[in-house]
Amino acid sequence: MMNGKKIGYLPSASFDSMSVKEVCTILKGIGYDSVEWQIGVLNPRTHSPAELQDIVDQTKTCGLDISEVVIQRELVVADEAVRRGNIGFCKECVEALSEVGIHTLNFFTGPMPWIPNPLIVGQGISEGAAWGMLFDAFDEILPLAEKQQTNIAVENVWGMLCHDFFTTKHLIDHYDSPYMGVNYDPSHDILAGHTDIPWIIRSWGEQIKHIHLKDAVGIPRMGKFIFPLLGEGNVNWKEFFIALDKIGYQGYMSVEFESFDYVSRIFKGDWKKAAQIAYDNLSLLLQD
What we know:
This protein has helices at residues 20-30, 49-61, 80-99, 127-147, 165-175, 186-191, 197-204, 237-246, 260-265, 271-285; strands at residues 6-9, 34-38, 65-70, 104-107, 151-154, 180-184, 208-213, 217-219, 224-226, 252-255. It is an alpha/beta fold. It has one domain (6-285): Divalent-metal-dependent TIM barrel enzymes (TIM Barrel), CATH 3.20.20.150. The strands form two sheets. The chain has an eight-stranded parallel β-barrel, surrounded by five helices. Strands 8-9 form a two-stranded antiparallel sheet. Strand 5 (151-154), helix 5 (165-175) and strand 6 (180-184) form a beta-alpha-beta unit. It is globular and about 45 Å long. The protein starts with 5 loop residues before the first strand and ends with a helix.
């Protein structure tokens, strides 16, 4: 643990070509306590129950916990067949992953703004229709999560229906369930123009089920923003950690490294170095 905090990493990019054991060995060697797996690693449609259990066991054998699994399927999408398929997939994940002891899953709402010709709420779809789709989806997903005692950790993401604290709070308040909470990533509230991150953390309180450690600077609506190295953006990390201490948060925090150009230009695509520099920077930030 780093300063009494459970710090993990969300592997992506070149990590995707490595085995579970290779990834875990690297992360454990750096000093991380946990790993946040992408759904490709623990997909119930491509892995049998025995294979899912084996991946969980391999992770634990390497000395890492699984903090959560990233599901993230669009629940606001124009194509009804795709939407229904995504809802079905989310339900399968809740059921299958809870059976192997994973009880925190990362969801977002959609629509995804980074795809070609994206669906835009307020233009391609009305706000009312978008919220209707979202509530319809969680009306099915949440009862199953409650039955399996699995936390749904919704992450608000730039450009989506739930893109900041206020839009996400509307969703969480609608259900008022102990299993419906947030994966709190301060970078997206920064991009939405909210600067009082400690107030948002205090407002979420026990509804925070998991945390992403990611910085941000820029203006999404102008297409000019980046997720820089921790400490380079507009998140005040000292105040961030003080606020978490005040609400008594003792859960997992995962570094989500999305400084893609930096890794390409400086590290020549070596994502192991990205995981290392993120850990080193975070260690310094926690000493402030």
